[in-house]
Amino acid sequence: MSKDKSGKIPTPQAVRGTQDMLGDFADRFAHVVETFERVRRLYGYKRVEVPVIEPTAVFARSLGETTDVVSKEMYSFEDRGGESITLRPEFTAGIARAYVTNGWQQFAPLKVATHGPLFRYERPQKGRYRQFHQLDAEVLGSDSPLADAELLVFADQLLKELGIAEGVTLTLNTLGDAESRDAWRAALVEHFGAHRGDLSEDSLARLDKNPLRILDSKDPKDRPIADSAPDIDAFLTAEAQDFFGAVTAGLDAAGVVWERNARLVRGLDYYRHTAFEFVTDRLGAQGTVLGGGRYDGLIENLGGPPTPAVGWAAGIERLAMLIADDVIDNRLDAVIAVEDDSLLNYAMKTLAAMRSKGLAAEIVATGSPRKRFDKAGKIPARSLIAIGSRGGQSYTNIRGDSELTIAIDTIIRAL
Fold it and tell me: What domain range is 348 assigned to?
């Protein structure tokens, strides 16, 4: 194990934006993942795994050479064979690559979900780390607006099951079809071009290659110009209007509350139709907890056939930070205090029987026998079991939750 110059073992925190997890937050993190796994099964999303390391070209071609992720944030390096490889900064590109290279078109429409670590070299902020973790859900091979609606209903149910839906708002926009988007893009280039001398440096760089991104600029210098830019609605084709109408009708039918945000955009040309974010003010300025959209041109960008697709991602750390203290019950079902060492084998047999029946249990059998009960009582648990002897007779005393004590008593009597 390597050490620094002081002889100490470096911690992850020595690399800005990384973290260790233990106890409460680790439990919250696991709760998010477990809830996601349960809900994605309700919607028929298959589990998918993609590599942490991909050829750099996968992300450069999918995210765009001029985006901040590719130009500033990716962890890319040459391996010993001279190939440029990258630690994945997001899931969608890898899933799209796998869809093409593995011939998964035969399963279309394919609904998949995954979760795991991602890596971006960016300024750490609340709930965001250079190694961070996301949930991800995608539908590949479907051009139906019902796929968009179902994906959003899935996300909405996930937030409700996590107990964090209150104070979180679904904001929704349409980017139109290719014809709508091209007409809107041309109008934006004309609008921003007329104010070229007043734009920030970043927005000037985006003007020719990524003008839609100027709309969500956080630079105060850009805001008056962005706020006066034309909306997409003036350029939507009838087909694009119908698509967005079908998505919102599906949400309304499912009881999902949403708000229109005509300034919500996705800068890359392969994005189409639906763009969305679930936002909150409970995490400060960086308020997006889940976001995504339709990316009908991505797989074609990667060398595959034209393939419609839609997906979303959510930061696990951010979701975990929103979970209330009383949502997760970390108590054991039972703790056994062994007050007589001659009964240790019997206590171990009892412990094994309870665990085999799905009860979380622990045993206290070290230290002074007279103090074990008090020690066991300090461990958070729904019931406390004392196993000891008195006057040459062994006894088992169960205290706690009435229904649980009856279940434990039944298990012990069957030994």
Answer: 334-413
The span from the CA of 208 to the CA of 332, in Å, is 59
Domain assignment of residue 189, yes or no: no
Residue 191 near residue 198 (C-beta atoms within 8 A): no
Q: Per mean pLDDT, which range of 6-10, 57-61, 167-171, 397-401 is the poorest?
A: 6-10
Judge contact between 256 and 153, C-beta under 8 A: yes
292: buried, middle or exposed (CB in 10 Å: 19+, 13-18, 0-12)? buried
Domain shared by 143 and 44, yes or no: yes
pTM for the complete prediction? Answer: 0.85
Which residues, 6 or more positions from 292, have their beta carbon under 8 angstroms from its beta carbon? Answer: 151, 275, 276, 310, 311, 312, 313
Contact 256, 171 (CB under 8 A): no
| Strand, coil or helix: 109 | coil
Asked if 305 and 105 touch (Cβ cutoff 8 Å), the reply is yes
Domain membership flag for residue 316: yes
Per-residue pLDDT tens over the stretch 180-239 = 988 998 999 999 989 888 888 888 888 877 888 888 888 889 899 988 999 999 999 999
Tell me the torsion sign for CA atoms 338, 342, 345, 349. Answer: negative
